[in-house]
UniProtKB/TrEMBL annotation:
PROSITE patterns: ACYLPHOSPHATASE_2 (PS00151), ACYLPHOSPHATASE_3 (PS51160). The lineage of its organism: Bacteria, Pseudomonadati, Bacteroidota, Flavobacteriia, Flavobacteriales. Keywords: Hydrolase. Its EC number is 3.6.1.7. Pfam families: Acylphosphatase (PF00708). The active site is at 19, 37. It comes from Aquimarina mytili. This is acylphosphatase.
Amino acid sequence: MIKHYNIIVSGKVQGVWYRKSTLDKAQELGVTGFVKNLPNGDVYIEAEGDQNQLQLLVDWCHIGPKFANVDHVSFEEASMQHFTLFEILK
């Protein structure tokens, strides 16, 4: 069953290619949705996929790209938006 997660990643996650790396990982996993920076320095992700795909994405979010320093990852299940691709929002 396809699910929708809202994910917030905090720490040193802006200016370290986190959004681009998330895009690459989501495409690798076959996940749809988007990633964007928040004004408070966090990264916000909405992702849709099956339970396994989403768990792999959340697991990856705890690590992130090479220069990231992730302090915390939170996620919650939300209503489906039926995304057709994964993209970076400005």
